[in-house]
Write a structure and sequence with these properties.
Radius of gyration of chain B: 19 Å
Order of helices and strands of chain B: HEHEHEHEHEHEEEEHEEEHHH
Keywords (chain A): Transferase
Strand order of the largest sheet of chain A: 1-4-9-10-11-12-13
Largest sheet of chain A: 7 strands, mixed
Largest sheet of chain B: 9 strands, mixed
Order of helices and strands of chain A: HEHEEHEEEEEHEEEEHEHH
Oligomer: heterodimer
InterPro entries (chain A): CoA_trans_fam_I, NagB/RpiA_transferase-like
Largest interface: A-B, 39 and 42 residues
Structural class of chain B: alpha/beta
Helix content of chain B: 25-40%
Structural class of chain A: alpha/beta
Distance between the termini of chain A: 11 Å
Pfam families (chain A): CoA_trans
Strand content of chain A: 15-25%
Shape of chain B: globular
CATH superfamily of chain A: Glutaconate Coenzyme A-transferase
Helix content of chain A: 10-25%
Number of domains of chain A: 1
Shape of chain A: globular
Distance between the termini of chain B: 28 Å
Region (Disordered) (chain A): 195-215
Number of strands of chain A: 13
GO molecular function, one term (chain A): CoA-transferase activity
Number of helices of chain B: 10
CATH class of chain A: Alpha Beta
Radius of gyration of chain A: 17 Å
């Protein structure tokens, strides 16, 4: 369900690089390429653009015949500025305007939790289409104010597309380009999402939808090809 | 040179760049050698991995300049976190944080001897707020297609010394990488006043395409042959990351007695002892 909702984020992107962080986001990018978005470019998680989507937890392609291109980190950073890229990244905190934080929780000089650092978030959001994958939708993530803005707000960003969580799908079409709940996953209520969000969450005038189910073909690809070890089950609580 | 001889060329307060990326092809033998010296107050410039973590664990670091610190398969390095989260002035460190692309431009500017390079990355984020020295600039051009707006003027990241690890090198200091990614190692070498290189194997001449000759001897001041010198980070294709050992490193950091045992056994003696003990593990 989550992987399919992630996959749908890349719908219509054509020949762009799908850069994904997190198990379900990676699965989503590879699933999209195997189904409705054959033009997408995907990587082995390292420097190779792969000829086809790789299964998770399997040895990465190192032989040149499994690669269709070379994208070492420095070229990846070039592509970030060039822009033919739709990134789906994580966030420790996200506010209603789409400002995200992956750097630290708490004070700058003595953080309560030092996280990754800004990484590529500033460049991603300012030049690339950006979506977020949040495996645990809680008030700790969806906060009134982030402790450090590492990803730009929707009004400043190139294109904040959507946020997929374990509870539902959100976009930035709320008032003034703020977060809005678009659909809830089966078994999840709108109230439940609102209870787990640290700010008021608007909904579309015509109501909140239900996230689509995976097709049989998608389920087959996820279970049999892309994630035979079921790593996605470890990322999302049951 | 030996790793210890490289470490002996460094002095307190230096700004040291370290090649590799996250937990990949880090010059760990050189980092371990630094840990065994009395060096202190270092500013470390790095796409950070356990190089940062170990130097923090040994109290060598005053400031980290980095876009991130990660062990890749383990998202966060425990020693870097501890040093940042500590309120103790003796062990806490400063963190100068840039976007990845900006960071690369900082090395490029230093390598090209340019006063800055413009980038849109960092605008509309707190990168400018946490780096109050950063300035912005407007494009002086108004030609069609050129973008207006505000750009961050990323200043150079000049280094007193750079440390890199290569798959192969010759005695004169030419370095070859054989893995899938050069990372930013040649930029580190070019941004530095001095560069010291460790390598898996010294060779009299190079096999493979000339494009794999990444670092030129004109930037290199010393070479150390240190087989498995990137351990426990990866050094493709010679070896992958030692995930078991990396987990052991991360686990030991959470327990003072366990860390003391880890140090005693692996780190406090010398590089041959480290490699011998790893083999016995």
């Amino acid at each position: 369900m989550c992987a399919v909702a992630c996959a749908d984020a890349w719908r219509g992107d054509g020949e762009t690089l799908a850069a994904a962080m997190g198990t379900c986001a990676i699965l989503g990018s590879r699933l999209a390429r195997l189904t409705f978005a054959p033009g997408l470019l995907t990587t082995d998680g390292g420097a190779l653009l792969t000829r086809g989507p790789l299964p998770l937890n399997r040895p990465a392609a190192t032989a040149s015949h499994t690669a269709e291109g070379w994208l070492p980190f420095r070229d990846h950073l070039w592509l970030v500025l060039h822009g033919r890229r739709h990134v789906m990244m994580g966030a420790a905190q996200l506010d209603r305007h789409g400002r995200s934080n992956i750097s630290r929780i708490g004070d700058r000089d003595r953080p309560a939790a030092q996280l990754l650092g800004a990484r590529g978030a500033p460049g991603n959001t300012i030049r690339n289409t950006t979506s977020y994958w949040i495996p645990r939708h809680t008030r700790r993530v969806f906060v009134e104010r982030v402790d450090m803005v590492t990803g730009a707000a929707a009004t400043d960003a190139h294109d904040l597309r959507r946020v997929v969580t374990d509870l539902g799908v959100l976009d930035f079409q709320g008032p003034g380009h703020t977060l809005r709940l678009v659909s809830v996953h089966p078994g999840v209520t709108v109230e439940e999402v609102r209870d787990n969000t640290g700010f008021d969450l608007p909904t579309p005038a015509d109501g909140v939808g239900r996230t689509r189910d995976p097709t049989d073909h998608e389920l087959h690809l996820l279970r049999g090809v892309l994630d035979p070890d079921g790593l996605r089950e470890r990322e999302v609580r049951g | 040179m030996s790793p210890d001889e490289v470490a002996a060329r460094l002095t307190d307060g230096m700004t040291i760049g370290i090649g590799g990326w996250g937990s990949r092809r880090k010059p760990m033998a050189l980092v371990r050698a630094i840990c065994r010296t009395p060096l202190r107050d270092l500013t470390v410039v790095s796409c950070g991995g356990p190089d940062i973590g170990l130097l923090c664990a040994y109290g060598k670091v005053r400031r980290v300049v980095a876009p991130f610190v990660t062990l890749d398969s383990i998202p966060l390095d425990p020693w870097f976190r501890a040093a940042r989260q500590s309120g103790d002035g003796a062990t806490s460190i400063e963190f100068t944080e840039y976007d990845e692309g900006m960071f690369m431009f900082g090395l490029l500017a230093a390598a090209y001897r340019l006063p800055f390079l413009p980038t849109p990355a960092g605008t509309a984020t707190d990168i400018l707020r946490v780096n109050p020295g950063l300035r912005t600039i407007r494009s002086p051009y108004r030609t069609a297609g050129a973008e207006g707006g505000e750009f961050v003027a990323m200043p150079p990241l000049p280094l007193d010394a750079a440390l890199v690890h290569m798959n192969r090198a010759d005695v004169r200091g030419n370095g070859q990488y054989l893995g899938p990614d050069p990372y930013l190692d040649d930029l580190f070498a070019k941004a530095a006043d001095r560069c010291y290189m460790s390598c898996e194997r010294l060779v009299p001449s190079f096999d493979g395409p000339v494009q794999s000759l990444l670092v030129s001897r004109m930037f290199v001041n010393g070479v150390a042959e240190t087989p498995r010198g990137a351990h426990f980070t990866s050094c493709e294709p010679d070896y992958g990351r030692d995930e078991v050992f990396q987990r052991r490193y991360a686990a030991a950091a959470g327990d003072p007695a366990g860390w003391q045992r880890f140090r005693n056994r692996y780190l406090d003696a010398d590089e041959p002892t480290y490699q011998r003990e790893v083999k016995r593990t």
